[in-house]
Design brief:
This protein has 12 helices and 11 strands. It is about 40% helix and about 20% strand. Strands 3-2-1-4-10 form a 5-stranded mixed sheet. The protein has helices at about 15-25, 65-80, 100-105, 135, 140-155, 175-180, 195-205, 230-250, 250-260, 265-270, 275, 280-290; strands at about 5-10, 35-40, 55-60, 85, 90, 110-115, 120, 125-130, 160, 170-175, 210-220.
Amino acid sequence: MSNIFSMVTVQRSNKYTNYAIESFFKNTELNENDEFFLIDNDGCELEQYSFYKRIQIIKNQFPLSIARNINQIIDKALKYKKNLVFLNNDIIFTKNWFHPLQSNSKDISIPVNNQIFPYKSDCENLKLNVTMNLKDFNENYLLLNNIVEKHKKKFKLNLKFQALLMPFFCFKVPHHILNEVGHFDTSFVHGAEDVDYRIRSVIKGYDVNFLLDSYLLHFHGKSSWDGGETISEVRARDKKYTEVFLKKWGSEITKIFILRKNFFEILEEKGLNEIYKKRKFSELIKRLLK
């Protein structure tokens, strides 16, 4: 099945978008029916992308939340019967990154990255820290690809796993899941919309998995909060989406998957410690919802 890829760019991180786009088209094998939509959320300068024949520009009349931006691409994926692949703009794509996601057609797939596996090159000229900027990367594509190749050799092929925190920084949703789970909940504004979608997918019988065969450099936060909000604004945003999540899913799931602290008494009380230790988080969600 063909895919619709999409990325959102915003003024404060538009410089990252150029690196993401360049590395995407260099390292992604597309079929003739795949499409790529670049969403201009707040009046960015996009002239540099005009020579990419594959790119279709969507200019929002006013800035939209991440959930609303994803939903306008879900509409297209549903209409044209294609998979959705949504991408942050603060990513460097690596060689053959998409093949493992393309091969996994049953569940939602996310590549791993430097937030999960931080590495450094042998010469130490490239350190993949949890949070980075363009200067830290310094266009060391060769060193990055060397790191990625060594990462892949550490693991058996086709391995996947789940984690408590699984940010949708880059994710593929197969068309059949879009049909059943539907759109993102727009009650969430820049926070928890991915956790909510994960829970709704699990309810329908679909897992969300990290794929070890796909590794990307994620600068972390440049497409959302980094440099765009004060501390008080971040706290206010966190409080707002937490309240929405609490109302929708209850205190137990909120403590475990949003607040992520002081929740072990819940696991103990419900006999879920072993499931948690074995990292069977889809099963954990199902049991908590009973």
